[in-house]
């Protein structure tokens, strides 16, 4: 409420200041003209301005029409100081351009005012000086200030739009920072689920194997049973933490991969923990891209985690087959019976919305396929991965980058770990991947830091390039709005130069022709005195100008003339902007009959 009142008070003060300035100009024009009608030439204009100035905010076109009416009044009455209202007309035309966004309605208003001015001159048979006034001064006072107002409005809009975009960019930066924080939490959750959960499952399995050892006492077995229960509780707590920390479904980042550990290291660690697993490879290992190798690692890890949880006493078979263009990973864990607990592995065993569903999404991003379900010999998890990520993988939406190691910024790779089993939460790339060039989009989608020297191929684009996978540039909304505002500003600037040129094409020839008529119809007083009544025209022709004055006033025409005589008028001076005395020559045939002086009508 207070802000509204302050704004209204400021507007009223600005209107009062504008009215004061225009009223001062009107009073000065009235004093300079010496008019004898204070009511018509002073009070009426001040009242009209008092109405037009406030209306210039709500109805700027009406305000321009009102002030133009004062100029029309000056055209109708030669004693009215019409020039005093030109400043008011220019000021309100400028406000019309600054306060009205469109151009159609203001141009109609300006054209209507100009047409009214010319029609007034035509109806009242105004003097040439007023025609010149209506053809040049009034159109300039209407058009040029309007263009200046539009330019001012466009510049103000451009500045306001720039500040708005800056504010939006600042807010977006805050959102990006918040998103980065949430992404880091999701990466921590993924790491805890995939790595810590797997490690705890192996510990629980080993504790279960020790519990069956014949060398243990009943007390030792009870302690191991308590240990298994504690580990199971820890796994559940990890899952609850994952549910709190990770993003909503669909926001899987694929972070937290133990990228410094190979599939062979994973299987060796599982065997060392007591998991009955057998594995083998067929074919020569091809150079796999980093995302594909990480995907293969995750397939084996997820399958082992499900098998050790839901069928801990059953054997597991892992077979990796390298074909010419793809690698097939098959994990089978034997089941005891069709109704046994091993069939629980068909679900999302890992909980928290991840497990096999998340694995399916990861493999699909890589351009491969995943099949899970019971089959001959047990529960099957089979993944087919291309050696290189396909275009479909690159067209996917990139996810945030990898989790930073402690004390290291996110996205910075640490040194490669030495040979042998490594921590599943490490973030360094595998040494054997140094020659592989993973696709940038897939690397980001899987949360793997790409090689610094790798650039996207022709079918992909960098994440911050602002383009699509097909290489087409996509302009943000802010750039489109900025281009639109700049286009409007350039159009207004062009109009500001073109409009005066167009006006000059029409007005300058008219003004030049009028000036030519006025200057070629001047009869100097000395020659007028040499004219002798009764002499023929052929003798007086050297003293006469080239043509007669074509625009005598009604006052000059009303002067009585001799019956049957033909009268011509000539100007007595070359002043184009002031009324001068006229000389009248009346002829009877070709003989000069009379010569008279018609005084100019002056206030």
Fold and architecture overview:
The chain is an alpha+beta fold and 603 residues long. The protein has three domains: 10-170; 248-416 and 424-474, Histidine kinase-like ATPase, C-terminal domain (Heat Shock Protein 90); 525-598, Beta-lactamase Inhibitory Protein, Chain:B, domain 1, CATH 3.30.1450. 54% of the residues lie in helices and 10% in strands. The strands form two sheets. The chain has a five-stranded mixed β-sheet, covered by helices on one side. Strands 6-7-8 form a three-stranded antiparallel β-sheet, with no helix packed on it. Helix 3 (60-76) packs antiparallel against helix 4, helix 6 packs across helix 9 (290-310) and helix 6 (128-211) packs antiparallel against helix 13. The protein is rod-shaped, with a radius of gyration of 47 Å. The chain starts with a helix and ends in a 5-residue tail after the last strand.
The number of distinct β-strands equals 8
Q: Strands across the major sheet, in which order? A: 1-2-3-5-4
Choose one word for the global shape: rod-shaped
Order of helices and strands: HHHHHHHHEHEEHEEHHHHHHEEE
Largest sheet: 5 strands, mixed
* CATH domain class of the largest domain: Alpha Beta
Q: Can you tell me the CATH architecture of the largest domain? A: 2-Layer Sandwich
Number of domains: 3
Number of helices: 16
User: Roughly how many Å is the radius of gyration?
Assistant: 47 Å
- Fourth-tier CATH superfamily name of the largest domain: Histidine kinase-like ATPase, C-terminal domain
- Structural class comes to alpha+beta
Helix residue percentage: 40-55%
Give unreliable regions as ranges: 247-257, 338-353, 391-471
What's the average pLDDT? 74
- Binned strand content: 5-15%
């Amino acid at each position: 409420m207070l802000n509204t009142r302050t704004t209204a008070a400021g507007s009223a003060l600005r209107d009062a200041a504008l009215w004061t300035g225009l009223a001062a100009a009107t009073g000065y024009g009235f004093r300079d003209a010496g008019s004898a009608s204070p009511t018509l030439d002073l009070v009426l204009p001040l009242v009209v301005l008092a109405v037009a100035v406030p209306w210039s905010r709500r109805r700027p076109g009406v305000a321009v029409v009102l002030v133009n009416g004062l100029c029309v009044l000056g055209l109708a009455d030669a004693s009215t100081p019409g020039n005093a209202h030109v400043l008011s007309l220019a000021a309100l035309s400028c406000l019309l351009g600054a306060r009205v966004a469109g151009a159609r309605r203001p141009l109609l208003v300006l054209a209507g005012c100009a047409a009214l001015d010319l029609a007034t001159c035509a109806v009242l048979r105004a003097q040439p000086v007023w025609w010149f006034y209506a053809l040049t001064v009034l159109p300039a006072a209407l058009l040029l200030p309007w263009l200046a107002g539009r330019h001012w409005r466009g510049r103000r809009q451009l500045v306001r739009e720039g500040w708005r975009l800056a504010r939006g960019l600042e807010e977006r930066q805050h959102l990006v920072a918040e998103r980065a924080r949430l992404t880091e939490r999701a990466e921590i959750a993924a790491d805890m689920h995939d790595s810590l959960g797997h490690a705890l499952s192996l510990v629980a399995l080993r504790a279960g194997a020790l519990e069956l050892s014949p060398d243990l006492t009943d007390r030792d077995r009870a302690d191991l049973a308590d240990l298994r229960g504690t580990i199971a509780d820890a796994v559940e707590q990890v899952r609850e933490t994952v549910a709190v920390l990770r993003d909503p479904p669909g926001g899987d980042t694929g972070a937290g991969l133990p990228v410094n550990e190979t599939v062979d290291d994973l299987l060796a660690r599982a065997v060392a923990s007591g998991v009955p697993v057998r594995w083998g490879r067929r074919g020569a290992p091809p150079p796999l891209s980093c995302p594909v190798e990480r995907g293969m690692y995750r397939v084996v890890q997820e399958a082992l985690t499900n098998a050790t949880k839901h069928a801990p006493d059953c054997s597991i078979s892992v077979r990796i087959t390298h074909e010419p263009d793809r690698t097939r990973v098959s994990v089978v864990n034997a089941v005891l019976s069709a109704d046994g607990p091993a069939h629980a592995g068909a679900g999302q065993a890992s909980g928290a919305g991840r497990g096999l569903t998340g694995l399916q999404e990861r493999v699909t991003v890589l351009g491969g396929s995943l099949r899970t379900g019971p089959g001959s010999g047990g529960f099957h998890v089979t993944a087919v991965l291309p050696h290189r990520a396909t275009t479909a993988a690159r067209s996917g939406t990139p996810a945030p980058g990898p989790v930073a190691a402690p004390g290291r910024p996110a996205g910075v790779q640490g040194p490669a770990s030495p040979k042998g089993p490594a921590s599943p939460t490490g973030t360094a790339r595998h040494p054997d991947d140094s020659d592989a060039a993973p696709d940038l989009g897939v690397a980001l989608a899987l949360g793997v830091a790409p090689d610094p020297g790798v650039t996207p191929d022709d079918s992909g684009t960098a994440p911050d390039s602002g383009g699509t996978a097909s290489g087409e540039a996509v302009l943000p909304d802010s750039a489109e709005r900025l281009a639109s505002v700049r286009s409007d500003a350039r159009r207004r600037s062009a109009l500001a130069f073109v409009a005066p040129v167009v006006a000059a094409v029409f007005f300058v020839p008219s003004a030049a022709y009028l000036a030519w008529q006025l200057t070629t119809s001047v009869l100097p007083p000395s020659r007028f005195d040499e004219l002798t009544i009764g002499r023929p025209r052929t003798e007086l022709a050297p003293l006469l100008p080239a043509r007669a004055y074509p625009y005598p006033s009604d006052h000059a025409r009303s002067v009585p003339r001799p019956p049957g005589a033909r009268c011509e008028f000539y100007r007595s001076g070359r002043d184009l902007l002031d009324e001068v005395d006229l000389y009248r020559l009346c002829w009877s045939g070709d003989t000069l009959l009379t010569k008279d002086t018609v005084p100019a009508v002056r206030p």
